[in-house]
Amino acid sequence: MVITCGVKVLRDEPISVPPSNILSHLGGLLDSADGSDVSFVVDGEEFAAHRAVLIARSPVFKAQLLGSMADAKMTSTTLQDIAPATFRVMLRYMYTDEFPEDAELVTEKLQDLFVAADRFALDRLKLFCAGKLWIEVSVDTVGAALAWAETYNCPELKKKCIDFLADEKNFRKVVLTDGFIQMVQKFPSVLAELRVKFKLNFEETKSFAIGQVVTSGDISAGGHLWMIECYPCGDNNEDNGEYLGVFLHHESKTKDVKAIFEVFVMDRNGAPSPSHRFRLVHVYKPKSKGNNDNTWGENRFVKRSDLESLYLTNGLVIIMCGVEDIAPTTFKAMLQFIYTDDLPRDEEDGDEQLPTEAFQDLLAAADRFALDRLKLMCAKKLWDDVSTDTVGATLACAEAYSCPELKMKCIDFFANEKNFKEAVLTDGFVQLVQKFPAILGELRVKVVGA
């Protein structure tokens, strides 16, 4: 019998393998420009680079340097709309996958790098910049940050900015900043995302019966409580469950209230649908035994088949709702005042009342012809009819035609916590601060005390 034995001596210390240094080698390649085969001229400064690295790192450079574009055959390319310092930092990242030091990134340079990362589809660098921009967000800067996120398609930064605005303490200060006003001027659709969002799980509703309802939580608007009622299969048997219905239910026990109910579906790109939306105005009577007219809306708002084919995203349908209360408006003619020294009496049924805009025109005429009593009467009528939907236009009218009494009442209305959020999310408010930007300072003092 032959037995073969072997002995292996184990060493206590294994051979150590140094960490990867490929990134430092690539960084050295960039610094030395050895083997470079393409160059970029940025504002007169030339940068040498390597096609293979750029092609591997950026789909935009890949299309330029490999595709049928003219740059594919050129050894030198001039880049516009980017600063040399920004291009240098971006190029370093592409070679080494390392982010710049914080000391290198003041906010303006960070914004430029964010734009460059979006331009050349460097998603990781873009998110790095977004994270740094978010760290610097404040009440004064969140409007600008949200505009950057919307302009350069960064949903992560956008969501954080909107969440920041969702905090009521932040919201009251942010909407009175120039950055917010400029943002909503450029991207008015963002206002929709600051309204009430109603999420509907479409898959769950497939088993719903006609008349089965899904409700939102309580919504506070204009000092009243409301609830959105959604009938995923409608509430009318004649429609065979083919339509989705949406209604506004008035829950408060109050006197007559005239409400605007605006509803639209959000499309798959997160924008309001232009085809599936409605805006209703309805007078809600006080609740009583003989009156159940406290719900109003559209039973045939949108076909379920359209929801599934056009709007369904990750199993959800997003419906945006806005609720604003307004009072009936009245109108008296200037000529009637000149002859009678008074405004005409309202008809008992109110059918002869005219819109608020008419009183704005009448106030302008009274200011022009120095009819001070008529001017104050118009101001009183405008104030009587002020709502969250109209206060912006009313304040603009007061400022334009030197009516300090009406102006102060409108500013006080804005400062009321119940009115503030609804009032600043209207076109009237945006137009107000466009025309009279100095009014923001007066509103800040009244609303936030600063």
UniProtKB/TrEMBL annotation:
Residues 36-103 form the BTB domain. SMART domains: BTB. InterPro entries: BACK_BPM_SPOP, BPM1-6, BTB/POZ_dom, MATH/TRAF_dom, SKP1/BTB/POZ_sf, TRAF-like. Belongs to the Tdpoz family. Pathway: Protein modification; protein ubiquitination. It comes from the Eukaryota. GO terms for biological process: protein ubiquitination. Residues 195-323 form the MATH domain. This is Uncharacterized protein.
